[in-house]
Specification:
113 residues, Jelly Rolls, 8-stranded antiparallel beta sheet, 8 strands
């Protein structure tokens, strides 16, 4: 798979990948230093607690989520955002169906596998 996308990415042309458990991912642009992805959650879907070396900044595009970062939890709605420091354990539960827009630095190589 290519290590970079075109400078313009049309959402209608970017494929969704079914991750199972009520989750889907759509890559919206990346190169070695940065990556942006949309993650769609069905109601009740769980983004399990995990950590990674990447700094992550996320925006709640739609829906309602219970987000946990480093042991702190907060209910977030459309228009809210959050920052995950490198190595911090974090996860999200969809209270209502919704979409998170995640930006990672550096890019997530594992998303291209």
């Amino acid at each position: 798979m290519t290590r970079t996308t075109d400078v313009f990415i049309k959402g209608d042309d970017a494929p969704w990948v079914d991750l199972g458990g009520g989750l889907r991912r759509q890559l919206l642009g990346y190169q070695s230093a940065i990556m942006m992805a949309r993650i769609a959650f069905e109601a009740g879907a769980v983004g399990a607690l995990h950590s990674h070396r990447h700094v992550q900044c996320s925006y709640v595009e739609s829906g309602v989520f219970e987000v946990t970062i480093g042991g702190r939890s907060q209910r977030l709605v459309a228009g809210d955002g959050y920052l995950v420091p490198s190595g911090a354990e974090h996860g999200a539960i969809a209270i209502e169906p919704g979409i998170l827009v995640d930006v990672f630095t550096p890019m997530r190589d594992d998303f291209l596998a």
